[in-house]
Amino acid sequence: MENLSCLLSTFQRDFIEAGCDEAGRGCLAGPVFAAAVIFPPDYHNAVLNDSKKLSEKKRMALRPIIEQEALAFAVASVSAAEIDKINIHKASYLAMHKAIDLLKLKPQYLIIDGNKFIPYPDLPHSCIVKGDGKYLSIAAASILAKTYRDEYMDNLASDFPDYDWLQNKGYPTVKHREAVIRLGLTPHHRKTFRVSDPQLALF
Questions:
Q1: Which of 99, 152, 167, 189 could covalently link to 74 via disulfide, CB atoms 3.0 to 4.6 Å apart?
Q2: Residue 57 CB contacts under 8 Å (≥ 6 apart), including other chains
Q3: Mean pLDDT across the chain, nearest whole number?
Q4: Helices (H), the chain
Q5: pTM of the model
Q6: Which residues contact 30 (CB under 8 A, 6 or more apart)?
């Protein structure tokens, strides 16, 4: 029997709340993506959960449901070149800020997956560790960020088949690292992410 999630609808009920999450922070190649989602205050979805706990098929099935049932949603990205300029942590927060900018309904409060965030101007926020497994809007944001990023990497994969992006989506698998060591970096790689075999270090 399929496990049903018991995620919460809201962190607080006084203000219009948007949940935010990112995907691709630990990748060697491609942008980092982020999403922001605003659900109705009493929204429920029994199967919506952290994207990492769902199969690709389930994530793709949930994406149109999220987009249809959300009061507002947005997805944004920051390129590998920009990641190299400002570092992956700042780039992740920038991607979240860009997604918030794109929301058609202005939120009054933000809930962020993780323990750190660069404050968005004039909006209070709370950081929630493992928030994508606790709140529906953050879980939805994790699904949107993940599915949009995966599609982006799939579209790049045909031009760079040796790096196995259809399978690894830019993450540092053994096959991906071996291809980088053998063939070098593509224009889509993050040049500040050092690759060694078999260890990966960020600096």
A1: 99
A2: none
A3: 93
A4: 56-69, 80-86, 88-102, 136-157, 165-168, 174-183
A5: 0.92
A6: 24, 80, 149, 152, 153, 156, 165, 169, 170, 188
